[in-house]
Amino acid sequence: xxxxxxxxxxxxxxxxxxxxxxxxxxxxxxxxxxxxxxxxxxxxxxxxxxxxxxxxxxxxxxxxxxxxxxxxxxxxxxxxxxxxxxxxxxxxxxxxxxxxxxxxxxxxxxxxxxxxxxxxxxxxxxxxxxxxxxxxxxxxxxxxxxxxxxxxxxxxxxxxxxxxxxxxxxxxxxxxxxxxxxxxxxxxxxxxxxxxxxxxxxxxxxxxxxxxxxxxxxxxxxxxxxxxxxxxxxxxxxxxxxxxxxxxxxxxxxxxxxxxxxxxxxxxxxxxxxxxxxxxxxxxxxxxxxxxxxxxxxxx
Length: 300
Prior knowledge:
Layout: E1 19-20, H1 21-41, H2 49-65, E2 69-72, E3 76-82, E4 85-90, E5 94-97, E6 103-108, E7 112-115, E8 119-122, E9 128-139, H3 142-147, H4 152-170, H5 188-203, E10 208-220, H6 222-262, H7 269-284
Antiparallel strand pairs: 1-5, 2-5, 3-4, 3-6, 7-9, 8-9, 9-10
C-alpha cells in the first residue's frame, strides 16, 4: 500500500469552547429592550450621563452579540479559528454562539456516496481493462480535512482513481492458468477489501474514513474485448468437452464391466477396442450417429 507524508505537522481535532445560543439570544433580547427603553424614556431637556452610557453600552452589546450566532445540524461540525489559528471543532447540535471575530467553517461529517468514472488501466498481464467503483466515505477528523489538504472533496475523487489504478494493476482480469490466484473478475470480496484498505491508507492524511468500497464495472477494453470473448468461449467449450469425455469414459468402462460380469459376450482385445471406439463416438459426438446393423458374425 502507498505511504503518504505531508511533510508538516498533522492537525488533530479537538473540542471548541462555544456558548449556548439560546442563552446568548436571551442576553441579546435584554440588550435590545434596554436600548429601546432608554431611547423612549430618555429626557432630552435633562439628559443623564448614566442613562447615556447605558444606552451606548446596550447598543454595543446588541451589535456584538448578533453576528455571533450559528446553527449546527446533526452530523455537522463547525471548525473554529481565531485569526487563522485553530481553536477547536464544535459538534454540539442546535443554536450556538461564539465571539463574532472568530471564524466558523462548516464541515459535514455525514456519509458521502461517490460513484467513480470508468478508468482504463492495464491489469497484471498488461491487458487493458475498464474499471469503476462505488465508495462510501465520511470525515472523521475535521481539522485534518480543513487544514491538511486544500480541498478534501476533490482530494477524495483523485485518490479514488489512483487507488483503482493501483489495485487493478496488482491482479489479472481473469485466471488463464491452472493456478488458483486472485483475479479482478473472480475474487470480488478480496478485491473490494483491498480497495477499501488502499483508500483508507491514502485518505488518512485528510482525516477521511472509507466505510465501503466495491467495483461496479469491470470489462475488457473495447480494442481487445472481441479477442477475449473468443478466448472465453474456447475455454468454455474445452471445459465442456473435458467433462463429456470423463463421463463417456466412465460409461464405457461400466458397460464393458457389465457385459463381462453377466457373460453376455466375450470380446478379444481388438473387438474390445472397436467397441470402445464406437461407444466414445456415440457418447462424445455432437451429432446424431447412424447405427450400422451387422447381420453376419462378430468378426465380419
